[in-house]
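Give me the 3D structure for Two component transcriptional regulator, LuxR family.
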Amino acid sequence: MITNKIKIHLADDHQVLIDGLTNLLQTVSNFEVVGNSLNGTTIYDDVLQNNADILVLDISMPEKDGIKVLQEFYSNNSSCKVIILSSYDELKIIKEVMKLNAKGYLTKKCAGEHIIQAINNVYQGQEYFSDAVREKIFHVFTHDNSKLNKDIYIENPILTPREIEIVALISLEYSGKEISEQLFISTNTVETHRKNIMRKLQTKNTIGLVKYALKNNLINP
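Predicted structure for Two component transcriptional regulator, LuxR family (221 residues):
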């Protein structure tokens, strides 16, 4: 049976890393590395030309950094899905790329271990953040009510006011029981809301809800 290969573009300012990743990814039968970029200014046009499905992008790029490249893809509503592969793991950068709709974030020290799974997950419509990145995200937000935006009751075209509350609390890593106690509703009602929210936002995990909460200012940085 013939299956479509996942077309991958690599962007990093070190040729040795691109070569190493290319060799690794070529061991996967349904992967095809269709191009690479050593300079931030060429990435968008390169990906547009080779019609890559996945862009693996470094933050530190010459002339135009990875954040600006990601902004370019975001503002043009590109269908190419971006996975950040960086030496940096500062929370400020992680939150910024989440707001710009990056679908994954890996640190370079764990690239060999995670990159294949990350590409597969992201291509299938999921998100992939390595364990170290996930821990950094949730360490800051966990159970900190001061992170709740006081203007949380804004009108939202997708979610109801109650669902907005629940997204914010889930993003702060409240459990179903804790949310039920906070909002004076049953745990079954919390779970029903959670399922409806996941369906509406077309996300399958808590990271997706954190991204939504950050992008829509439901929780404060």
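The beta strands are 6-11, 31-37, 54-57, 81-86, 104-107, 128-129. Let me know if you want a second pass.
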